[in-house]
Structure formats: structure tokens, C-alpha cells
Amino acid sequence: MKANKLAVLFVLTAGALVFMLPLWIMLVMSFKTPNELATTAAWAPPGAWRLDNYREVLSNPNAPFVRFFINTLFISTVATTGVVLTSALVAYPFARLRFPGRDRLFILLISTMLLPGIVTLIPTYVLFAKIQWVNTFYPLIVPAFFGGGAFNIFLMRQSFMSIPRELDEAAILDGASNAMIFWRVLLPLSGPAIATVGILCFIYTWRDFMGPLLFLNNPDMQTLEVGLRTYQSLQSEQWHLLMAGSVLTLIPLFTVFLIGQRYFVKAMVMSGLK
Amino acid sequence: MKRNLMSRLTLLLIAFVLSAITSAKVTIRLSVWDGDVALRVIRDIVKEFEKEHPDIRVLLEPNSDYAAYHQKLLTMYAASVAPDVVMMDPLYFQALAKRKALLPLNEFASGPDGVDLETYYEPLRTAMSLNGELYVLPRDIATMGLVYYNKRLFKEAGIPEPDGSWTWDFKVRPELREKDFLWVMQQLTKKDRSGKTVQWGYSSDWPELFARSLYYSYGGNFADNDERPTKVIPEQDKLIKTYGFAGQLMNKERWIPTSSELTGQLMSTTQMLFVNQKIAMFQSGIWQVPNMRKYLIPDKEGFFEWDITLFPAYKDGTRKYPSGGSGYGIISHTKHPREAWLLTKFLSGPVGMKAMAEAGIAQPAIRDLAIQPGLWVPGPNTPKVQLYPYNRIVTDTAVPFAKFEPSADFWPELWSRVASKAELVFTNQASAKEALPVGITEAQNRLNDILSERDRPQFNWTLGLLVGVGIFGALLAYLYWPTKDARKLTAREKKEARSAYFFLAPWIFGMIVLTVGPIILSLLMSFMNWDIIQPAQVRGLENYTEAFTRDPIFWKSLRVTFIYTIVSVPLGLIFALLLALLLNQRVAGVPLFRACYYIPSVASLVASSLIWRRVFQAEGGLLNSFMYSRVGELLGLKQLAESLSTNGEPLNWLGNEATALPAMIIMSIWGVGGAMVILLAGLQSIPGHYYEAAVLDGANNWKKFKNVTIPLLSPTLFFCLITGVIGSFQVFTQSLVMTGGGPNDSTRFYMLHLFSNAFQSLRMGYASALAWILFVIVLIFTALQFRLSKYVYYEAEAK
Questions:
Q1: Residue B71: CB partners within 8 Å, gap ≥ 6?
Q2: Distance (Å, rounded) from C-alpha B28 to C-alpha B56?
Q3: Most A CBs within 10 Å: which of B43, B75, B303, as the mutation test of the A interface?
Q4: By the CB < 8 Å criterion, does B44 face chain A?
Q5: What is the pLDDT of residues A31-59, one digit of tens each?
Q6: Fold of A58-272
Q7: pLDDT band at A274 (very low <50, low <70, confident <90, very high)
Q8: Residue B295 to residue A209, Cβ atoms within 8 A
Q9: Where along chain A do its domains lie?
């Protein structure tokens, strides 16, 4: 058993090193001067771990990093809240309840994932423009409260469906309503799924490029993913700054992931109690 | 409630007061694609403008992603919320001008706040005009006929510095000595004993620039008429000869670095090779000067004397230089045309141009400013750091020879057919004679289609609305049409149904308000000709028949996408499952490991694509370092790479038709983090007592995996499979950023084709048809998978 664990640890470490290679390149590039970037190998460490690039990214008035950061954090947090709240809500009847049209509605739900968003983008934009929502955060956060998209609903439904039905039946015998079953039985047992939806959604929103690009005009309202493109224009590409900015944007994602994945374990303990 | 009302009233009051204060000012929105460096200058210019016009407020909306800039502009235009003043270039303005999305500027120019258009460079004015009307007031001009040269290397070789009076021919002419471009190129090339080039005589910023410069000066044209082409590449033989010749200098003579040698460097590679004295001369536009000055600082280490000169003429004296430029136009639905014009005039006037010129960013489009000493051209007071290149006056000499690409709005689409073949020539994967005519024919076929496109009846919105409501009604009917086993619901069932709809309410509301409308509209548009700007015209089924019968890229991109899906989805799923199983073990540091495998999949696309290029590059790329190493040789990888390489050099993964798609698939492995997290959560949800029971039954690890893990994980696996296939059919950003669909369309994913039709060729109707075809294909795939779902084990099935 001990040897087994060591082997697992070895494989994990080796794999992680390979997987982290792009991140390593990103990290060392973020510390190099433009000249170093041009003359040294991509994965070679910088001559000195200077913070100049970071200082410049944080203080450039053309691309106010802190401003972008706050905007991104706000949008991601609110959108994730909406998605987590409503996707479980919408998934519940698909997984547990009987009602006319259920299977067809489910087909409709899956179908909304199949049509490329590019062709519905302009009508959607016109719609938001008509209600004066362009150049506000609304188009980026309000839709999250309408179920949060087929992907998340589907994911939650799959998770609910793997929870034994005997639990609901026991609750029904105790006189619980559907809402109570959802709230008291299913949700507490779906910790890992909720954490997954939360993590994936937060990170997806954090990295979204098209949404903020189209709906936000005011440079002070921009998000990181769009704002940092300033360092990569047609005439001049400032890779050293771009990389420094990218490293900084990854830190919160890293944190969110580390916190979120703790809920994976918690649920196991609870369902083990059964 | 009361407080809420109060605060709303207060807000209203504030809004009212604010609007009263600001209403005296006119707000003009300005959009540019300039990045960080130029943006600083523009901000200053705008401030200057506001000082001069206190009644006008300018809102600067930068968007430095060139492709996204146009996409956003079109989208905003469709919603009538486009900015007032927009940056434009000769390549793109016609798409807007032709459809009356830009205002003609001649009337403004001759009006009371006018400007003397004669002071602007003539070729640039012509390039930004349509039907004799000027639509873009030029800001700068960039001819790409400039040759940057290293004085030190010329001196060492004993060759007099070039004065631009040289010529070129298809062979070296030693008798002309330094007046022969090829002779100079040859003399400045140094090879080591094995015949490998260690110093190249020359390179252009990107391979096609050189070939194009040869073609132009050899008398070639891209179209018979730049504004209204009817024939693509009228001088086909000249194109084959010059492009083939450029390929020969790269791949056979080795006087010019090949594209795989260029990718051996990190960034805009040619200039760095020049800075590091690996290339004696390189051709580009004046925009490279700030980059040069960044690396070549007088009196600092690594500095050498350098200057610029003109690209040679053909031996008969013909000179033509590929050129670009930019300027500002006014969107036609602006509410303040006068103020928009004032801003345009200011940005593209002496003040704006001076600021840009002083920063060394752009050559003024007004000739008097371009030749004024001390501004653009160095003068007596120019500081030493800004002295280089001293010979900047040639940027003015070059202008009369400027040649712009055909301005027809559909030209980029046509040219992309030829360019994808030219790429094969430069990378030695095909000869010019075989490859180019194929591309030219494809482009000509497409052009014929465009020209035969007739005017069609306009789409009737009332009718459209009726059809839309009809479709919506049909959808509702489908949802509520009683199923076979329909019967009267009992009171309990009714209650259950009611609470189900209550739970579904947010989603149903969102569907009706936000999703259904645009989806139905896109279905309607798939039967239209719709260019986003003008009203749609009815095209019937032709979008669909065109895709199936006349669009060569349709089938090719479908094939690419199929292969990608069939390989990458199962591969990714297996990989994600293995990872999830490993990361589900109780070993030290598991949370950190999980992050290590997940975070790389979410690193910013721009950053990671740059890094991936480093992994796949030919010389010194990570993958090649491994494949060509001892270990790789033992595994047979080296032999594989050598057999795939087309020019006897290390394998250029992304530039090779056979390996570009496999490279994309390898890249996709790094994206399994998402599926891994989902599977991990699924694994964690499997109650521990199942395993305990299995152990009691004497099950070994494999049995536990087979009889407990797989069945209980099957809902999650099923989810990953379904969403994986859907996602993989819609993949395209990687290829957009990394390969642009090349080489020879080998990474042109279906969605990339759809995207370029929608926003580059302005064929939103056709793109919608493509989208609905994809919809049906993926729907079939998904339905098939749901058929298989009987193997999925659900603890609780609500039958």
C-alpha cells in the first residue's frame, strides 16, 4: 500500500511538471526584460527576478489594472452566485419530478447548447441595446440568474440523478414538500456538484472575452481579459507586460479553485453518514 | 418599501441634475484599435482637442484587438449604437462605405470647417476613396518598401551602403555588383561548413511581403480593377514566377530564413534576428523604428549603425511597394456630424499627426509635415537616440510608388484562398506551379459567384414576425402535445407538475425573453442575404445549397472538425478520467496537484497560444527537443519527425499540413482540466459504503473499478461525453490565434469558417445557415449518444 502511494505520488508529480510547463514559461517571461525575451530560451529563468514588469502593469494608467480587477471580480462573483442558485433550482424538476412535457423540455434545454452563439449574438446585442443595457454590467450578470445555461443545469441534473431516491421517499413519508426535499435532502448531498458549477462558472466568467468586449465600451468598466489586450496590438506586442498581467489574473483563479475543491471532500463525509 | 422608493427618487434627481449639467456638452465617442504605446499619444491628442473645443467631450473607446475591433463595430452598428468617429484602414473601410455606414467627407472638407485635401498624400487619398468620394481622412501612411540595413555588416563585406538605386532580376548579376540586390543578398549571406546559414542576407517581415514586393515590381496586379474586380490575379504566370522565386531563395539558396527558422525566435522574429545581427537587411514598414530604438541604443552594448533604404526596382526600373495606412471615418448614424468632423479633422490634422510623428509611431499623411525637418525627418536639433534611421526621407520618396491592395470589400476572402496556397510554396510543401493556380481558381469561382449575385426582394419584417410567432407556437405545441400515455392527472400529480413549473420558472422566463427570439431570428436569417449593415434580402434555400455544392471549404472544414472531435474527445475523456482517479487518492498535497492540472487549462488564451507556439516551433521547440533527442530517437520519434518534415529541417509543427491538426489535438490535452474537475466531483459523490460492501464481497481493485466506480460515475461520464462532443464541434479560437486556419486550411475548423463568413465576409445569412447545419449534425450525434444512455446507471430515475 505504501509503495502504491509512492508510485501515485511519482506519477502525479511527473505529470504535473509537464502540465505546468506552459505556466512556468509564462512565469519566467513575466520577469524578463524585452531584450532577455528576445535572446534567451523561453523556459530559461530570467537573469534576475525583477518586479519591474509587475510594477509597470499595476501602474499603467492606460490599462488600470486594479480597476479591471475590481470589475472582473464583481462580475464573476455576482454571475457565479446567480448560476449556482438557479441552475440547481432548474435542474431539480428535470431530475426528480414528473410533469407533462418534461422530456421535450429537456431536449429543448440541450438544444440551446448546439447552436453556435455567433449567429445569435447580434440579435441578443440589439435586444440589450434596446433596453439601454449596453455599457452596463447587466448583460453580463442578469442572464446568469435565469438558470445559468444548459451546461450547468445538465451538470446539476446528472448529479441529482445519482442520489438514491429512497432518501426523497423517506422525506415524503415525513411529510416534506418538494421544496423541502430539494433544500434539505438534495442540495446538502450535492456539495461536489455545486462546487464544480461554482468553480467552472467563476473561472469561465473571469476569462470571458467576447461578452465584456461587446457589452462594455467605457475603458474604466472593462475586465482583465479584455483590458490586458492593450499590450498586444497590431504595431507593438509587449509580451513581458502581457505575461505579468496574465500571471496576476491567474492568482485569484488559483485561490478560488483551492477553496472550492475543499467542498469535494466534505460531501463525501456527509453521504457516507447515510 | 418606502425607503426603496425614496432612494429611487433621490437617484432620479441626481441623474436629472447631472444630465442638466452635462447636456450643454456634446459627447463624441471615438474608437481606435491602437495599443498601449500609441494609445498614450492619442489620449494626449484628445485632451488637446477638448481644450480647444470646451463644448465637446470625447469618450475614447480603445479596442486593440484588430479582428475584434471590426466585429464589435459591426455589432454596435446593427444596434445603432456605434461610436461617432472610428479608426479605419484601406483594407476595411469599403465594407462600411459601400453600405453607407460611413459618411462621405468631401462636403465637410470643402465646408466652413474644411481642410485642404490636396495636402494629403495622393495615393493614400485614392486608397481611402470609393466612387470618387473620400470616406476616411488619412492619419498616416506606411509603405512597406523599406529595407532596414546593418551598416557594420555592409562595411565588413566591403560593400558600399545601398542608396536605393539598385535593381533585382531573377538571377544574380555579379557585373552590377552593389547595384544588384541579389548579389548583395548573396554576399551578405554566411554559411558554415555544413552549408547551414549562420547569417542571412535578407528577410522580409513576413514571407509573403517579399514575394508580393517582387510581384508588384514585376508588373503584377492582384485584380483587374481594385474597386470592382472581375478577375483575380490577371497575371497568373507572373505570380507563379515571383512567388516561386521567393520560395527558392528561402528553401534552396538559403539567403533568406525559412519560416521555420523564423519561428526559432520568440517574437516578431525578423526584427529580432536583425537586432542580433543574424540578418543583414530586412524589409518592413516604418512602424518597426520604435522597436529598433528599444534594442539599439547608441553607446550601449549591442549597438551598431543602421539605416533604411528603398526596396529595389525590377531591372526595367519598375518600382511598386505594398502599402498600408490608417485614418478616421464618421459613422453615418452619428447625431453630431459637425462635432464628429471636428474631431476627425483634429486627429488627422497637424496636431494629431505631429504628436504621432514625434513619438516615432506613424508617418504623417500630410506631406508637408512628413518632410519637415525635426518632426518626422531628423533635423539639427533631433536628439541622438532619435537620429536613427537617419535616412527617413525615403519614406517620402517611397510614397509615389505605393500600391494598395484591392479595396473591394470581399477582397480579403478571395485573397485568403491564394494566400493559403502561397504559404505552401514558402514552406516548400508544394511548388508554385501546382499550388497557386488551385488557389486562384478557387478565388475566381468565389468572385464569379459574388458577381452573379443579384438583388433580391427585401425581407418583410411583418411577415418575418408572423413566421417567427408561428415557429414559436409550433415549439409550444410540440412541448405540450400530449404524449401517448396521456391521461388525466391526479390531484397529487397536478401538484407535482405545478411545483415543477415553479422550479423551472427562471429558466423558462430567460428562454422566452432572451434566448428564443435570437434563435428564431437566426433561423430566419439562414434563408437571407444579410450583411449586418443593410436590410436582409430573401435568398431562399440558396445558402444551404451553396454550402453543400459550391463551398469547397465547407466540406474541408467539416472533415477537419470531425477528425478533431473523433480523436480529441475520447482521448481527452480517458485522460481526464485517469487524472481524476489519480487525484482522488489520499496522497499528500492532492489539492495542490488538482490545481496544477486544472489551472493550465484556464491560463489566458493569448498567453498560452504564444507559449504553445514555443512548444511546437521547429528550431529549439520543446516538442522537437524531445523528439530529436536520444530518447526520442530510441522511441522512433525522430525518424517520424524527419519523415514528416518537408525541407530537411526540424519539423515545423504548426506550419506543416500533416502535423498542424495533430498539434492542435495535443494542445487539447492540456484543456482536460475542466472535465477532470467534473469527474473528480462525480467520484467524490460515490458513497463510501459501496466500496466497503465490495471489499466485503472480496472484490479486487479492478472489480471495484468496474462494478462500483464506472456505473456510479456513468452519469458524469455521460455528461462529459455529451458536452465534450458539443464543445469540440464548436472549437475555433485556438486555430484563430495560432494558425489562422492554415497551412492550406488543415486547421480550418468549421466554426472558424463560420466566423470568418459572419464577421469578415459580412455574410451573416450564410453563416446562420452554416450554424443550423452544424446544429442538425450535432443534434444527430447527441441523439445517438442519448440512445446509448441506457448504459448509464442512475440511482434515481424519475420515470
A1: A214, B759
A2: 7
A3: B75
A4: no
A5: 998 878 777 777 788 888 999 999 999 99
A6: MetI-like fold (1.10.3720)
A7: very low
A8: no
A9: 1-50, 58-272
